[in-house]
Amino acid sequence: MKSKSKFCDNNLATNDFIYFEKMLLTIADNQKKLFSEYLSLENFEEDIYNPKWLLSQYESHIWECDFKAKNNLVLNFNIKLEDGSLLSDVNNSKLLNGIKYFLCALSSKRYNGGKALKHTTFKTKFNTALIIIDGIISRAKKYKLAENRMSLFTRNDAIELFHDIYSQGGSSGAFDIINRVSSYLCEKSKLITDEQLLLSNSIYPTILWEPESTALTMSNEELSKARLWLAQNNFYRAANSSKYHGSLITTKLYKNVFRNNLRLPIKTTSFDALRLTPNNNSFNTEFKAVSVAINERDLKRLSISSISQYISVFKLLSVCSSENLLNIIDSSVFDVDANDIAFTKSQATSVGRYRTLPISLVFNSINNALEFYLKHSKDLFEMIELITYEKDRLFDFSTTSSGFSSFILKNASVNLIEIGLSCYTISNTSNKKNINIDYFDRLRANYGLIELYEVLIGSVLVILGAITARRQGEIIDLDINCLSPNVEPNMEIGGFDEYSLIFENRKSGDNVDREKISRPIPKIIAKIIWDFVVFKKKLTDNGFEFKNNSLLFCFAKFSISDKQVDVAKANFCLNTFCDYFETPTVKTDNGIKRFYIRQHQLRRFFAMTFFWGSGFDGLGTLSYFLGHTDPRHIYHYITENIPGEVLKGVEAQRILYGFSSKDIDNLGRLKSILKSRFGVSDIEIRTISEIIDYLEDEVKDGHISTMPNILDLKEKIESNIYQLLEEGTIELHPRYLKVKDKLGNPINEVHLSLIVKEEPSE
């Protein structure tokens, strides 16, 4: 009987230990000791089947996992496969053990280069693995998992799966959310008769509303019947004063649609078309909003680095294949990389991106925000401080009473009285969900104290977004200790000239464990932050109670209490800002729509100021607030603070514009690449760009039409350029020149140069 290898235990795959023994015989003597120590240490003595995070027995069909979060994660392996059997059935034991071993191997030093993973790194890796497994289970019928395990899973299947994950953004693509939700609700809509739908109109007056567009693959009739079925089965949230608020309980729906997965999709997708009442005025806006997204279905596409991480985790499945647990026959399954996923011509999709705000709108908004803050913040703070100080002693009446208004008129500053302040709030207590007919006229007339404060918060969000380029979540999460150094910026003697913003990086860790990072900010931003720190301290000294330590906060309109600035409230304040300053509107087939600013659009603007700024008035003002005089510093600051995919989107737009402006070197070679790579016919790109420049507004407003649609053509070419940037075939780089003006004064100039790394095929 053959003796057992000294490296063999019940955890190490047979192929692995034979390979290691052969390797030990071939390496140099001076390396054998180190190699033997590596193999014999705890890396290969640890119990794969008993990781620290697993609180249940390995053999259990329900796992409780401790990831140091608020609640433990529970995985239920009793899920139904395509033939009706359960994954936990005896006949599926190899498939089940393959999945379990894969999950346990994720944290093993043996499969991580002998290193223990950080908690946040492992949690991210584990969630990635679950998305991959659930993506495969979601396609169980195609692969016939119960009958064949993964023997029918090919390299093309792997590419297809990861392309869905890449193009639709993680779990949305893996779970095929749009199609599965559509299919589920189409089946449920068949349970509703035409007669039932007509009779329901008296109970749900808006149930027949038709959305302008939806990602769901359902007809308007199917949507209406699906809403009725959802209402009958209590899928809508109840409001305070009415039985149905109209907002779908998405997690409840997901528990039904995705019951045969290990867990629900990590990120839930809301579908406005499924609302019981249309979402036309969810944030009480004066007009409907110009859509913030182009190609919305692809908007959440992953970056190349993110899909590379998915593929890296996926390749660990090969361990289970070597043990014949998953029965993967196609050896090329694991021979995939990010380029296979992102740049296969047959699968290429247009770039999903956010709509760019008109540059003049952003500059005007920055100007309005700064002016409003500098003119009114001090008076608003003092008025609110007085109210919080006096509220317990003086006020037994509501905030909308005449007595409260009299107190405000008596104590408000001359500045606030002159601009129109007359009451605490202009909102109507009898109908808190809806606005008054003249609400927006009263808003712009400055009647309400709290509404002015909401405009102030909107102004701060615009300033922080456009000048610091921070994510919305990072701004919302700022606390009163976010300024460094934590001293008053206005001190003339002994003050500091350089300040930084300390915030939690939303792209690292989770809600419990995120990386704290610091980025430089101009002095005006430091002043605003310091003002809010002092303001909050004074309110606290007045006995005002706050629910958390956040830097930014709002106030309830019908009681003197704080209201958290969460995502909904932040968007509300941005909308109020836009209606107050009457940002531009556009005419569409569906009526007049207004540009309502969102934080991600301001981040995009921040990047665009470098690539487009030299041709627009106002860049000097922005450079002043950034505190930079050398364009190299601005470029370095931008590339440090803006994600690569955002930069590439901006660069693609700038390159397209360069065909007509002729201000980018080396564009001739790009024209040849576009022709050879994307099958573009022999056209004059410059002519197209010139037409776009002159006629784009007319096309948008519907005054003229073109065939093909000029905006679609622009987006297609821009998408092709983006792809070349993302795969590294082309790069856009600035060249810096120091020249002298007519008076001999030195000035900086920036020239953009395109680097092409591929020769076009003839």
From TrEMBL:
The lineage of its organism: Bacteria, Pseudomonadati, Pseudomonadota, Gammaproteobacteria, Alteromonadales. This is Integrase. Keywords: DNA recombination. InterPro entries: DNA_brk_join_enz (IPR011010), Integrase-like_cat_sf (IPR013762).
